[in-house]
Amino acid sequence: MKLNQLTFTRFLAAVAIVVYHAKSDIWPFNLPVLHNVFSKANVGVSYFFILSGFVMIIAYGQQKAVKVKPGNYYLNRIARIYPVYLFALILAALRLLIIDTLPVKEFILQLFAIQSWFPGYISKVNAPGWSLSVEALFYVAFPLLFNYYYSRFSFKSVAILVSCLWLTTQVLLNFLYRSPYYAAPPSTIHDLLFYFPLMHINEFMIGNILGFVYLKSAKRQANYDLHITFIVIALLVVLSVNNYLSFHDGLMAVLFAPLILLLALNNGKITKVFSNKYLILLGEASYSMYILQHPIKSFLSFFFKKIRVVNPELQFYTFLVALICISIACYFFIEIPAKDWIKGWKDRKRLKLQAVDDSVNF
After folding, report:
1. How many angstroms separate the CA atoms of 266 and 279, rounded?
2. How large is the angle between the packed helices 277-284 and 4-21, nearest 10 degrees?
3. Residue 167 is part of which domain span?
4. pLDDT digits over 154-210, tens only?
5. How many domains does the chain have?
6. How many CB atoms lie within 10 A of CB 279?
7. Which residue, 5, 247, 275, 319, is the most exposed by fewest CB within 10 angstroms?
8. What residue ranges are annotated as transmembrane (predicted)?
């Protein structure tokens, strides 16, 4: 089951994160009302995590009597995320080798996507890769959660546990974030609170619960355009007025969860617009867009200095267009071929083993 209307939302979240990394100093994002929103747009990563958990259940949750096979599942996940992740890491490493030195330890940690487990090593090579390190935990945990937890306990029991996990995470984050123990980055406490994978598992599991709710409610499709609009407005208002609580570890699930569910169930105009094939393509390319943003920006910044382009708006929008185009190219020429090759390798290996088995039986 594929919900095309959700695919484009990944692009919107990715653009918001790119603007956030530009420090919201670009027009029109430097206008006070927009600046307040986009200065917190890194919350888009939380949206990715929740959506990832939701999609996993949509993909596997309909097969109630079938367990997720860890080997096949892990290979499919690697085929989906690692080729572009590796490409971005290589670009980032080349950038460092050209303009500075490559921190070998950090590079090795990022190569194995385990950097988020080690405070102080999050952003030395390709900073956005931290979220893929967190996603790696989700992918390792999902077959265990699906096969041995979700299938054995009632929905109510799971929902209570995840709610407690979410609440504990928010209290811990916001208490320490406002306490004397917190130190601004770079610091160990900051990396543990904001990037440590266990601080984000609640978001993925909320997405899982949301997926089960959708599977039970899939027949209740209707026009939810008005509800979706209201939630988006509420989201913008909360982001614009809050300067105290940290949203980084899933606090905005209270709005993201109903937003994702209503978008999935919606058959109104928003769904029709978001299901446009070109918007779907942008959504499909959003992963490349997110993971490539830092190396592409760095190379373009070097180029801008060479040709003496100093206007920040011209720099940013040139970068944004280039990033989108490169991301679409990566989707077609790296993501899809690499995914097909890795999955094909699995099939070739299976056929080879079958041939050996047949020859032995003969």
Report:
1. 17
2. 50
3. 4-361
4. 999 999 999 999 999 999 999 999 999 999 998 999 999 999 999 999 999 999 999
5. 1
6. 18
7. 275
8. 40-60, 81-99, 127-146, 158-177, 192-214, 226-244, 250-266, 278-296, 316-334
